[in-house]
Design brief:
The protein is an alpha+beta fold. The protein is built from 14 helices and 23 strands. The chain has two domains: 306 residues, Roll (Pnp Oxidase, Chain A); 113 residues, UbiD C-terminal domain-like (3-Layer(aba) Sandwich), CATH 3.40.1670.10. The two termini are 44 Å apart.
Length: 482
């Protein structure tokens, strides 16, 4: 059953013994972040700071900080269960007769059930309080995470924008540097959907309406972070995850619909001609991202619940909470990747690779040079284009086991023969590239080499004990005194 909103999720966590309430006064400047960092790295519980200095609004952190909690947030015992549902939708059987067509109708009807529903303002908790005359961000316990940060940042915003030509909605998660009580930075990278809409308004020379939702049910928060195809609605995807539609309500001052059960909504605009220095900010790379000019978001209206809860996360040296959001994406989107590159059998975005530095793939190798073909395919797929090191393994390699993966790389790779370096777009936070947004990437073929690939020697076999001996020892294990 889907969680209705953030507080419903917190209640669920508390019932499982996974919520820590802290009643002592805590500062939102560095102290709360240090507590959350320790909790994440220890696999600790979600945290609700009930007494944050300077505000009466509670602060919720570490909401997704373990794989088990990530599964609970999305209502499944394992993330691969969602992947199986995705595969069912992505690979429907082609009906060959009228009876099979009739059997498909329930599947199509289920998809229609995930379309967001619009509700009235009277049914929307996020509009219990409306502040138009003197809107302010000052009531929020916005966290300053690291000492070198340019200031406090909103770190879990759901940023709603519309394409100026098509009116199509985009929901992204872009950090927001709080400059003062009415303005923030809008850190959308050039490759993201919000930035694409922004460029469209630059051409029109009009103010760009923007709405930001803070808090919501966990599936909707996750959906805003997911790298969806351009034609897929994040709110419909959230409905798919929840197995029931998201309820939306129209904002009071801008023509944008937002989650009705959010905690706080910030309504306003971005002026295409206005930029302001944003950052620096300690980022998920484990380094400070550089200060840089970004668009400015102006708050013109705040709507909220009467007793809102403010959710936040922190990023820094891995492992951090964002690791588990990234791992959810890895498992959930594997079926879509296989729809385009069917020879892929598994994918692993290692924690230490912070999503875009390392990408491991196992494949059903079918012909000479197949690994290189997959490398090129990966670099052509959405945000996987940022993958700095793409490593390809045979299908019998457990790439989820880092020990086995590194062992295979060390044994199977001849650096001159098995590497490929290409130039192309890199992540906006990539600080090692010579210039911003553009640099080199390496593909590594860690598969067994075939004679048809120019390997003149005999490839050695893996060391393995005969199956009958393994079974014998397994049966007698306790007899040996272990």
């Amino acid at each position: 059953m889907a969680f209705r909103d953030l507080r419903d999720y917190l209640a669920g966590l508390e019932a499982r013994g996974e919520l820590k309430r802290i009643s002592s006064e805590v500062s939102p400047e560095l102290e709360a972040a240090e507590i959350a960092d320790r909790a994440v790295k220890a696999g600790g519980p979600a945290i609700l700071f009930e007494n944050v200095a300077g505000t009466s609004v509670p602060l919720a952190m570490n909401l997704f900080g373990t794989m088990d909690r990530m599964c609970f947030a999305l209502g499944v015992p394992r993330l691969d269960d969602i992947a199986e549902r995705v595969q069912e939708v992505a690979e429907p059987e082609i009906p060959t007769n009228f009876l099979e067509k009739l059997k498909m109708l329930p599947k199509l009807a289920r998809l229609a059930d995930f379309v967001p529903k619009t509700v009235s303002s009277s049914s929307a908790p996020c509009q219990e309080v409306v502040e138009v005359d003197h809107p302010s961000l000052s009531f929020l316990p916005v966290v300053k995470t690291w000492p070198g940060d340019g200031g406090p940042f909103i770190t879990l915003p759901l940023v709603f924008t519309k394409d100026p030509k098509t009116g199509r909605r985009n929901v992204g998660m872009y950090r927001m540097h709080v400059y003062d009580e009415k303005t923030t930075g809008m850190h959308w990278h050039v490759h993201k959907g919000g930035a694409q809409h922004y460029r469209g308004f630059q051409g029109k020379r009009e103010r760009m309406p923007v709405a930001v939702a803070l808090g919501g049910d966990p599936a909707t928060i996750y959906a805003a972070s997911a790298p969806l195809p351009e034609d897929m609605d994040e709110m419909m995807f959230s409905g798919f995850l929840r197995k029931e539609p998201v309820e939306l309500v129209r904002c009071r001052t801008v023509d944008i619909e937002v989650p009705a059960h959010a905690e706080v909504i910030l309504e306003g605009y971005v002026d295409p001609g206005e930029l302001r220095v944003e950052g620096p900010f300690g980022d998920h790379t484990g380094y400070y991202s550089l200060a840089d000019p970004y668009p400015v978001f102006h708050v013109t209206c705040v709507t909220r619940r009467k007793d809102p809860i403010y959710p936040a996360t922190i990023v820094g040296k891995p492992p951090m909470e964002d690791v588990y959001l990234g791992k959810a994406t890895e498992r959930i989107f594997l079926p879509l990747l296989r729809k385009i590159v069917p020879e892929v059998t598994d994918m692993n975005l290692p924690i230490e690779g912070i999503f875009h530095n390392y990408a491991f793939f196992s494949i059903d190798k079918r012909y000479p040079g197949h690994a290189r073909k997959v490398m090129c395919a990966v670099w052509g797929l959405g945000l996987l284009m940022f993958s700095k090191f793409v490593v390809i393994f045979d299908s019998d390699v457990n790439i989820q086991d880092m020990s086995e993966a590194l062992w295979r790389i060390g044994n199977n790779v001849d650096p001159r023969r098995d590497t490929m370096i290409v130039d192309g777009p890199v992540d906006a936070l990539e600080h090692a590239s010579p210039i911003p947004h553009y640099g080199s990437k390496m593909g590594i073929d860690a598969t067994r080499k075939w004679a048809s690939e120019g390997f003149a020697r005999e490839w050695p076999g893996d060391i393995a004990m005969p199956r009958e001996i393994v079974d014998l020892v397994t049966r007698r294990w306790k007899e040996y005194g272990f």
